[in-house]
């Protein structure tokens, strides 16, 4: 799938009832690149227009403000994460039928699932990380997405493995926090902070799993 086709797909996830023109796709494609490189505040609509090969006025015919343009990218991406990825793909591939797996196998599936997602969506993740601290509505969407679609299932999974005696009996929310922050810390380092380092991804993934399990396994 080309980047333009991928952008059109995520745009349509959030706006299935709205026609998306080729010019809009070009504008969004350019905005993703410039927002991820410079950040929202430093990017200008004139730069985006030039990159997209359209007049600046064309942007404002489709998006009233630069913020509207940002949210035309972020909102469908959130919907892509929440519905097809978290609610369907993530839970189905990682958490459903967890009884057949050990806890370290669950962690491995979770890590590979999120690794592939971030690898395929790095520019958008960079935009989200840059902007989420400054846009309360974006932060609220993420909190609601996590609480509504993943948190309860994660609680169920953690409590199952605690009852089996595979992991230590500490507060469930603490287990979830430790696992999530360790996995996303690795992914942010790998794809956002120092992507140019010489990464051995398979080795780093296994070391991350060992680190989590050493902290959570019953001795």
TrEMBL record:
Keywords: DNA-binding, Membrane, Repressor, Transmembrane, Transmembrane helix
PROSITE patterns assigned: HTH_TETR_2 (PS50977)
UniProt cross-references to Gene3D superfamilies, sorted A to Z: Tetracycline Repressor, domain 2
Transmembrane segment boundaries: 174-193
Start-end of DNA-binding region: 44-63
Pfam families linked to this entry: TetR_N
Domain HTH tetR-type: 21-81
GO molecular function list: DNA binding
InterPro entries hit by this protein: Homeodomain-like_sf, HTH-type_Tx_Regulator, HTH_TetR, Tet_transcr_reg_TetR-rel_C_sf
Protein name: TetR/AcrR family transcriptional regulator
Extent of the signal sequence: none
């Amino acid at each position: 799938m080309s980047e333009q086709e991928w952008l059109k797909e995520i745009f349509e996830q959030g706006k299935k009832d709205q026609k998306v023109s080729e010019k809009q796709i070009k504008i969004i494609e350019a905005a993703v690149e410039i927002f991820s490189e410079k950040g929202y505040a430093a990017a200008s609509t004139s730069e985006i227009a030039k990159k997209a090969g359209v007049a600046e006025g064309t942007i404002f015919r489709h998006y009233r403000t630069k913020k509207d343009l940002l949210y035309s990218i972020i909102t469908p991406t959130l919907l892509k994460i929440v519905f097809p990825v978290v609610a369907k793909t993530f839970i189905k591939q990682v958490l459903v039928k967890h009884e057949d797996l050990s806890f370290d196998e669950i962690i491995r599936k979770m890590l590979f699932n999120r690794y592939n997602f971030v690898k395929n969506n790095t520019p958008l993740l960079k935009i989200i990380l840059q902007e989420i601290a400054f846009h309360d509505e974006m932060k609220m969407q993420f909190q609601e997405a996590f609480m509504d679609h993943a948190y309860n299932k994660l609680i169920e999974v953690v409590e199952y493995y605690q009852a089996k005696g595979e992991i230590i009996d500490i507060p469930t929310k603490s287990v979830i926090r430790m696992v999530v922050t360790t996995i996303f810390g690795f992914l942010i380092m790998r794809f956002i902070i120092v992507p140019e380092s010489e990464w051995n991804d398979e080795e780093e993934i296994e070391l991350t799993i060992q680190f989590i399990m050493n902290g959570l396994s019953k001795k």
